[in-house]
Amino acid sequence: MIIGGSKKSVIENIEQNITTEKFNSKVEVNDATLSPAETSRLLAANLKRRQSARYAFNNWLARMIMNSTTKLINRHTEIIGLENLLGLENGAIVTSNHFSPLENTIVRQTLRQIGTKRLFVVSQATNLLAQGVVGYLLKYADTLPIGGDKEYMGREFPKQLQQLLNQQQFILIYPEQEMWFNYRKPRPPKRGAYYYAARFQVPIVSCFVEIIELPRRDNAEFNQTRYRMHVLPTIFPDTAKSARENSIAMMQQDYAQKKQAYEQAYGQPLNYQFSTSDIAGWRG
Fold first, then answer.
1. Has residue 151 been placed in a domain?
2. Matching SUPFAM superfamilies, A to Z (predicted)?
3. E strand map for the chain
4. What is the CATH number of the domain that holds 104?
5. pLDDT at 2 exceeding the cut of 80
């Protein structure tokens, strides 16, 4: 399912970022930009909204919509490695490759197999400005916005994470940061997700989504695709290591697992030389 218009400029930006090794930089066009003051006001307004009865109702409704959407999008999704989730009794941070506004439904579908009913997703504050149904879901469907507000990121955001993890919830954090549309390859991760896992002594649920192209047109530029979720071995912090040591070790292990999963899924070594086949379904 393709959201938005032509992706030609996005793919050109992906190729350019690969050339300059900016693997975690933005490639989408026409995304909103905010000043630090605007970001602070947006995050504060979101916190206030979450305390209202109206938010509680809309959160319930948004989760019902997400549940239905998850079932629809993933009716043909395969899940491999579900045994790696057995025995998880507490909260965890989930990492996965970030290639679509809807790929979090694949993670949701996977966690539903072990009885997990909710998934919290860390998202850029600018996504709160999105309109329509997608905008509604980004505001209300268990999203945790982040932005460049030092006070918020230093105190409020970690407090939210800790509360949810204490409630044994699962939190999806994209270590690749920015979404690269239908990009098949795992990108080098940033350390944030692993820092929080180490700080709060919770495991990393390591995931890699394989994108399978179908011989059917989706729109003028893309064929349809389906997904195969690879649930990789869960990564636990080492109680003998510091938070920094743990975060680096967990990040390195997660990237190594995703790299191996990519190479096994696609039958080729991982490199970052751009090819049109890197963009799943693209007929460009």
1. yes
2. Glycerol-3-phosphate (1)-acyltransferase
3. 78-80, 92-95, 120-124, 143-146, 170-172, 204-217, 223-231
4. 3.40.1130
5. no
